[in-house]
């Protein structure tokens, strides 16, 4: 009897030991969460959320920058008869808060957020897709010229798609200043601005100024995406640092500075073309195009005018880039995605 018991016990032990096999197989399928976190849809949503956080935090600087860029234009075309005051960045910001109210520093933020639903999602995801085409898994460092090509293409495509929201944003930003100067308001809300643009220029009018807009976005993303990706991998490879907040901060600060240098001249041209009045056919009354605007600006105000608003542009881009990349990387880490 004892022998039988001893002979049967290995069988029992064998069946017991073989039981966990299906369980271990199920455990091997668990990285589904990782795949989802790195998916196109999830990356798109995370980029939009991170961009919205950065936009709300730094929008007053964008409004100040736009007002500074338009000041010289108003004086040049009114031959000195304008009541517009030339003020610096800080004085302009405090002037808006004092003369129009503190909440006016966020005037036009709604279409700006709408813009990022398209712009930020498309630029981040398209850059990531192109980067993966150039590398095996998208985590390796790209050569600078390949990274630059990806950044320019991603920025241009994203901005062209988001250009209507950007046009509405710029027009709303200037309404407070127009009313202080005694001029009749052109638009009353984002919806009203959208309807007015379509009524005057048709659907095509929504892309007024899209060429300098796309040019600016291509240059900005050449500075932002390319610099961030290159500097991040350079720091991690050369200094042997992990993918951490310190690396993100250093890379994002460099990205914001380079983006401001690359994008400010195109931003001045874009802002002036999009803000100019139009005739009943939707044609601009001040400039025939981006080249004409560039020529007139340099001829009447000098080359330095192309960098008007550079300080607030850089001061905005630096914290915007810092806030965006830190939020983006942190959210991805929280949901189990890999580093960008």
Q: Kindly report how far apart the N and C termini lie.
A: 66 Å
Q: Report the strand count.
A: 0
**Percentage of residues in DSSP E strands:** under 5%
- What helical percentage do the residues reach? over 70%
- N-to-C order of helices and strands: HHHHHHHHHHHHH
Q: Helix count, per DSSP?
A: 13
Structural class: mainly alpha
Segments where pLDDT lies below 50 for 5+ residues?
A: 1-34, 78-84
| Major beta-sheet overview | none
Residue-averaged pLDDT:
78
Shape: globular
Compute the CA-based radius of gyration: 26 Å
Pfam family, one: Mito_carr
Biased composition (Low complexity): 8-24
Subcellular location: Mitochondrion inner membrane
Family: Belongs to the mitochondrial carrier (TC 2.A.29) family.
Describe this structure in words.
The N terminus is likely disordered. The termini are far apart. It is built from 13 helices and no strands. By secondary structure, it is mostly helical. It has a domain of 100 residues.
Keywords:
about 350 residues, mainly alpha, 13 helices, about 0% strand, disordered N terminus
SSE blueprint:
Layout: H1 2-18, H2 20-28, H3 32-37, H4 40-77, H5 89-100, H6 109-134, H7 144-173, H8 175-180, H9 190-201, H10 210-238, H11 245-275, H12 290-301, H13 310-334
Short description:
Residues 1-27 are annotated as: Disordered. By secondary structure, the protein is mainly alpha-helical.
